[in-house]
Amino acid sequence: MKQSVSYVCLVGHEKEDIPINVVRDFDLMDDGDPTTPSMFSCEKCGVEMYPEYYKGIHGIEYKISDIR
Ligand SMILES: [Zn+2]
Question: How far is the CA of 60 from the centre of ligand 1 (A)?
Answer without folding.
Answer: 25
